[in-house]
Amino acid sequence: MNTKKMLLACLAAFVVTFLLSGLWHIVLLGDFYKANDVALARAEPNMLFVILGQLILTFLMAVVYPMGYKGGSPVKEGFRFGAIIGLIWLLPWSVMMHGLWNYPLAGVIVDSAWHVVEEGVGGIVIGLVYGTSKK
Length: 135
Hints:
Blueprint: H1 3-28, H2 30-35, H3 47-68, H4 74-100, H5 105-130
């Protein structure tokens, strides 16, 4: 494994997905998330753990991506990979939270769909960092 590429892919994907997440959750759909908030939500988010979670996600994506890359366009393969990660990560979790918390079904649908896009873009970034090489 090329550690330098992996760390660069992690950092680049972190920056892009973190910024996209803020744009989506605060600027574009902030009112939606406030209206569909769960009873257990914090009054103010603990950003240290938000950042840590996003870093863990992009690190794991950067580690796993080259294991499944079989060739082809880094953009196409990266988006496909990231979209799958978004589905694997958020859809089951959101469905479970809908069953456990007062988490609205609209939140399950909107957030799950968003994370297909967000992690898809993160996957593109990772794919571009790794390039087309199988090494």
